[in-house]
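PROTEIN DESIGN WORKSHEET
SECTION A - STRUCTURE
LENGTH: 73
TOKENS:
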């Protein structure tokens, strides 16, 4: 089995696991939609946090450089 086939099989298993509850009963359409929406919201928050972290890092570096330049003069 190739790596691509393994990944495809794993994705299918994950998707199937989302269709059923821990007790083995099938989830309703509303439960599946809520699950997917909450997952998207978590991913969006994570992406926004990473962007803010990058912006803060740039701002911090600029302030550090300005501080060094001011100390040299």
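SECTION B - SEQUENCE
RESIDUE ASSIGNMENT:
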């Amino acid at each position: 089995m190739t790596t691509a086939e393994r990944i495809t099989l794993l994705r299918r298993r994950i998707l199937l696991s989302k269709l059923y509850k821990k007790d083995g009963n099938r989830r309703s359409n509303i439960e599946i939609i809520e699950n997917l929406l909450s997952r998207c919201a978590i991913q969006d928050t994570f992406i926004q946090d990473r962007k803010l972290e990058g912006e803060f890092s740039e701002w911090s570096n600029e302030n550090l450089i300005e501080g060094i330049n001011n100390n040299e003069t």
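SECTION C - NOTES
Residues 29-72 form the longest helix (44 residues).
The chain has one domain: 3-72.
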